[in-house]
Structures are given as C-alpha cells and as structure tokens.
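Journal club prep, notes for RB
We'll compare a predicted complex against what the paper describes. Inputs for the zinc ion case:
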Amino acid sequence: MPELPEVELARRGLARWLAGATVEHVRVWDARVVKPSAKALTAIGGARIARVERRGKWLRVALANDERVLFAHLGMTGEWMQTKGDAPRERFERVRIDVRRNGRARSVRYLDMRMFGRVVVAKEDIASWTELGPDPLADGIDARALHEKLRARKKTIKEAMLDQRLLAGVGNILAIESLWRARVSPRARTNALTLAEVRAIARGLGATIRRTIAAQKGERAAYVNAGAPSPFLIYDLKGEPCPRCKTSIERAVIGGRSTYFCPTCQRAR
Ligand SMILES: [Zn+2]
C-alpha cells in the first residue's frame, strides 16, 4: 500500500506533467474511482492546472482561477503515469487526462487494479484533507506537540502512528522502520513515552522518508514491483540479523497489522 514516500513521488511526477498545463479532454473509463461523478471530472476540460500538492497520502491538484479542486488518493494499487497523447489505453486504466502545455500534448493516466483509490472533484478542501495531522515531510514534526497528543492516548505507539489525524502519511512500513531507528518498542504505550523517545521517533520518520525517496528512481516506488531490492532496514526481514545488534528480527501482529522489531534494541519496558 502506498505510504508517504510513494505518494510524494507521485506528486513530483504529476507536478512535472500537469503544472501550467491546460486540460484538453478527460475520459473516465470506470466511474467507481471518481467522486462525485464522472461528469464532474470530465467538466474540468478547458481548465488550467496551477499546482500539485500533497498532504499525507492525499494529492491535491489546484486549478487556476477556478474554485474546483481535484483530490486523489492511491488507495491500495493506484498509480499515475504519463504517455504520449495518442497512446492506447493501459491495463487497469480508470481515468485519462489529456493535457497540453507549450504546444506539447501528453496524456496522464490513472491506473488502479483494485480500485480503492479515488479521484475527487470538490469545491473546497474536503474533510479528509483538512482533518489530517501534520505531514512529516511538508510540515515537519513538532515533537513537543506530538508528545502531548500521545500522552492523552492509551494505545500502543505502533497503532497510534497509523492514525492519519495524528501524523499524515505514516503507514505500516514507515512506522516499523522509524520505531526501530528510535529504539522504541512497537508495543510501548503512548502515554508512557518520554519526550526524548518522541523526538527520536520524529527523527526516525524523517530519516526513513528521506532514505525511501532517495532509493527510488522515477515517479513510481520501485519496491512496489515484486523482485525490486528493498530499501528497508527491518521491514519484512523476520529472522534476519538486526543491522545494529545482530539479534534476529521478530514479527508480531499489533492492531491487526504485521510488525517487525528487534527484541534487543526495542526492548519493551
Ligand atoms: Zn537490534
């Protein structure tokens, strides 16, 4: 499932292809991924795209001199790509946006095998955008504020980190890798964490995001493709030696999600 680094790569691609371009034609192949309707999306034909932003796992496409805003979420298997204007429909292509910029035509396609992703036309910022917590990359993390919020909860830190209202864009892999970097047990109770531990988690998130983005080439995260080398230190590496202390990495299920951790470096208190 795409997490913050993959969505940031998608944003960079969309910004490169769409910013400053005029929408010539929109084709909706499958209206199930479009809200509120295919008609609302095809009606953006003629609009000029101002910029592409990201908050957490949401992409936001702002139109110039137009109150409509496009939001997009990759869901489980969503992916944006670009092709020549006249290229045939791709496998799993759900939406096609043909644009022109400086006389050059290109076609931006939204592909989604399982169709949990969304392309939303809204008149103002939708709740899923406004209710998101700070984005670790775009906003940075205020460790003191995060520590206060965590103290008010009684979950495990691993579960809390996946709450998009607390931190936008953090998914299972980012949480696992940054807790390992911070030497904090995924089972640690949020109300028992020290400020120093929360600071270490914030640093771990930043380091994991930077490392994951730097490891990718192009607009699509390579490790999404089966067989690509993993940029991760402990994720999905049960039984492998911890890169720090050589103890075997363990796997546990916390809050219904697979979690990996080093029982030595991330000892539960
Ligand atoms: Zn270790």
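Talking point for the session: Residues 242, 244-245, 247, 262, 264-265 surround zinc ion (CB under 6 Å).
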